[in-house]
Design goal:
alpha/beta, Rossmann fold, five-stranded parallel sheet, three-stranded mixed sheet, about 20% strand
């Protein structure tokens, strides 16, 4: 009887130790990741994190293949998770790769196994997937989802991504990293046939959606960032010069209902 009780006690203590070990590992992993990124002020993350709430979708836009964009996105995730809150992270990867993504988290596949569009794929992006998978493995509160449309999906990409995101809306907020155009909640198209982006479709469906495109002043570098509020005149100029100019759309006079803010990258 005494030996059985002793074994049960040892097993219980072992389980507690394993759980504690996981939490300690997760803390140092997240803390190390956060402090390794020194190219931006913590104020930028605070603006975004305060809007990540239950039943909401937050989109951080990016110009693909910018390592600093990846680092910034990871830092927002890390800082948010330090609050002991849960999060769904959505990535611009074909949803037919979800099984592989899950297997990477479980340690059954490696990041080299996942197929990613050449438009998006780069080393920093795959490193991020690997880092997030490690975090998700030791933290049940972090979930990774692939939301893009694969070649076999006969639906516009933005419509498909909207569908996947809408299905995930719950008490656990969603944070997505998508191309900048997908982050525009409103576009004043100058032709009748419109092709709304993810944020615009979600807004039309009355989802709580917050968006923050990242813009580069000088595309040759981006080692310092600044948060530009959407109610500033400067924000209108930045959006018109860098995003509207690429569309068949009229320029904005105000962007408060288009984005929630801009992460402006520049050379220090």
């Amino acid at each position: 009887m005494g030996m059985a009780t002793s074994k049960k006690k040892m097993k219980s203590e072992c389980s507690i130790f394993v759980a504690l070990k996981k939490r300690i590992y997760f803390f140092f992993f997240v803390t190390g990741l956060f402090f390794s990124n020194s190219v931006y002020s913590g104020e930028v993350q605070k603006w975004i994190i305060k809007g990540i709430e239950p039943n909401s979708i937050t989109i951080i836009g990016e110009h693909h293949k910018r390592p600093e964009s990846i680092q910034f996105f990871q830092s927002v995730i890390s800082k948010y998770l330090q609050q002991d809150k849960c999060l769904v992270v959505a990535l611009e990867i074909a949803s037919n790769q979800q099984m592989i993504l899950d297997e990477i988290v479980e340690g059954k596949s490696t990041v080299s196994d996942i197929k990613i569009s050449s438009i998006i794929d780069h080393t920093a992006f795959r490193v991020m997937i690997n880092d997030l998978a490690k975090m998700a493995k030791v933290n049940d509160c972090l979930k990774l989802i692939a939301i893009d449309a694969g070649m076999e999906i006969d639906v516009r990409r933005d419509e498909w991504m909207t569908k996947i995101l809408a299905e995930q809306v719950s008490q656990v907020p969603i944070l997505a990293l998508l191309g900048n155009m997908h982050s525009l909640r409103k576009v004043d198209w100058n032709f009748k046939k419109t092709a709304p982006y993810v944020a615009e479709i979600l807004a039309s469906l009355n989802h709580t959606i917050r968006t923050y495109p990242q813009i580069w002043v000088d595309k040759t570098c981006g080692n310092q960032s600044e948060f530009i509020r959407s109610d500033r005149k400067k924000a209108v100029e930045i959006i018109n010069n860098n995003l509207t100019s690429l569309l068949n759309a009229y320029e904005y006079k105000t962007v408060s209902d288009v984005v929630d803010g801009i992460i402006l990258w520049k050379c220090s």
